[in-house]
Design a protein that fits this description.
212 residues; mainly alpha; 2 domains
Amino acid sequence: MNVFKQTKPLMSLPDAERWANDAQVWQAFKQGNREAFEFLYQQNIQHLIQYGSKITSDRSLIQDCIQDLFVELWDSRENASQVASAKHYLLKSLRYKLIRYLQYTPTETLEETKFVTDYENGESQLLQQETVRSQGHLLAAALKLLPKRQQEAIHLRYFEELSNEEVAQVMGVNYQSACKFIYTGLKTLRHTLQLISLLPPVWSIYQFFKIL
């Protein structure tokens, strides 16, 4: 099955509405329901592609790993354990595959330091504020300047809307490290965007990022 050549909806809306939550669709998939399997694919494919791009820029590798993931998932469906969140499970599985192919062991190398994590009420509004100001393109460019691990953590937290605990689980790090990736990434983003706001109007975004 080539999961990247599907262009038409795989099921009608009434079919999709059979499952009220992830637990039900996952159970149907485990029992061999192909529509449930296709529904899992439809609901998660874009999330997986976007998340994979935070780990590697090799789009072919991302596509190969996603295809392998869904093929293996279907082949081993009867032995698949029950999951609370299909998206969480698939993101974590994709990460494992990509890391394995990149021959990188996801171990924490940053020095563990104690820091305050009650930043979310203020710092976490950064993404929403910049989007409201029609600076989505600028924010996307600034995000690309961050280290891969910080990009990955911020993507999971704010674009995939996972909790900090879930981010830690998907990335294979402890809770404190996940918070640190998010916190440090947000601080760097704020600093970068503040610098840009001080530039003369004649400066283009391209000129700014070219000199960094």
